[in-house]
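Researcher: Let's walk through a ligand-bound prediction step by step. First, I give you the protein sequence. Second, the SMILES string for magnesium ion. Third, you return the three-dimensional complex as structure tokens. Ready?
Model: Ready.
Researcher: Here are steps one and two:
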Amino acid sequence: MEVFLQQVLNGITIGAVYSVIGVGFTLIFGIMRILNFAYGEFFMIATYIAFFAYKDFGIPLIFVLIIAMILLFCFGAITEKLIILPIRKKAKDWSAGVIMATLGLQVVLQSLALILGGGTFRGIASYLMGSLMIGPLIISYERLLILTISIFMLIATLLLINHTKLGLMMQAVAQNKEAAIVSGINPNKIYTISFGLSGLLVAVPGVLLMPILYAYPTVGQLPIMKAFAVTLLGGMGNIEGAIIGGFVLGIAEIFASAYISTLMKDGIAFAIMILVLIFYPSGLGQFIKRYKFSRSKI
Amino acid sequence: MDKLILNVDHLTAYYDDLIALKDISITVKEGEIVAVIGANGSGKTTLLRSIIGLHTQKDGSITFNNELIKDLPSYKIVSMGIAYVMSEQALFPELTVEQNLRVGVITINKKEEIKKAFENVYSLFPILYQRKNQIAQSLSGGEQKMLAIAKALMMNPSLLLLDEPSLGLAPVIVSKVMEKLLEINKEGVALLLVDQNVQQALRISKHAYVLENGKIVKHGESSSLINDPLVKKAYLGR
Ligand SMILES: Nc1ncnc2c1ncn2[C@@H]1O[C@H](COP(=O)(O)OP(=O)(O)O)[C@@H](O)[C@H]1O
Ligand SMILES: [Mg+2]
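Model: Step three, the predicted complex:
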């Protein structure tokens, strides 16, 4: 029983991280109907920012986090303005073109990282020592911090979408672009901000997972795989679905590696994803009554 | 009262090689109701989309209150006082009635103005107040139409463009919608209405234009057009 509870706790911690990663990814699909294949590289940039700011400049972790969030917001927004907006302006049916462009950006950013930083793994052993005991359960302070900040980010995202003017505009553009335009909303602005928010969200695990995922040119591959899985599990573009999907994936992975084999970790997780999709093609998010963004199926 | 607010002058609109509107000129005066009638595919929607800026392949001139709006983006045009009610898919389906209306005032920052807009719209459409927490797509067809009109009114426009307000509605509901439009007009809002329901459109409008294959073939007082042999034969089935 204690082992079981411990596994659940570990699963929830990882799940919260997956949820944040998934929400940042699914947000873009929900609003723009595109997949950002360079999303993992947004994460990669955050890991480099984290390493240099924390290790070389000795900036306290919380400020490193804030700096990375701001920089990644800007990077996301600039990516949208510089690469995606020009394609959107030229092509009427721009989904495919934009997706290809983000694929290209993924490779370019990886190469740039390799040229500038070489193939060295840059990471730290730990930024917070010690553990908290809750009865028989144990959680390291580091994991507790990751869990707390991740959950905070999820709540903040939900509040932003459901209870602010910006959130209402995002929902309006996502649900009916032309109706939003004739209500006085400039969708380009919303797209740019959404890309920024996506970058901001993925910066959080990029920084906090510093002792686990070291800065490296291709470190983004793992997060984007998880982002895909979580997004599909939750239903494409469904924020609440992605949150549920993240926790389901996290817990499934922990149990798969604890009770079957660590080798099965990713396999089981994706097997669950496929099973869910067979029975619920629009993901777990279909149990959410109202879709804030896209209702399109995969 | 006779001030010209909308002036569409020699407008031609394209879809790449296809010419959808040929050299169209239309005017709307302050507080007036103008109808554009025409069969399916005659170019009515293209005309409204050209005015509001959603359709960009066009030549000629469009001015609103003497300002050239032809090449402005839609979100700027609407802020000048033109609102547009699309014939279908005018709403945000997953938002509540109240949220839909709130999007209508998204560009307004003054709390008082927003409150006034809500009061105004809810007193005109009490049914929307009863349904304010319901999701837009769960409303009936007639209620959705009312909400689409109400959402446009939230922007406090001086000109309202309406694309087929009677489309897909039962005759009883059509009459109701038309009565609401007359009420809105009484408040001083000019209406430019395009419709296949020629009878209703000519009944409530003062002036009307007849559109055929992208060209205006007739225009004049609605009361005289309703008795025009050509109009009778082509659109009223008499
Ligand atoms: N998106 C489009 N692409 C190409 N042609 C179009 C498009 N929309 C409308 N058309 C054409 O333009 C003409 C006018 O259409 P429209 O303005 O929708 O007419 P109406 O609203 O009177 O039914 C029609 O011949 C129609 O086929
Ligand atoms: Mg039409």
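Researcher: And what stands out?
Model: The interface with chain B takes residues 165, 168-169, 171-172, 175-176, 178-186, 290-292, 295 of chain A (CB under 8 Å). Chain A has one domain: 2-287.
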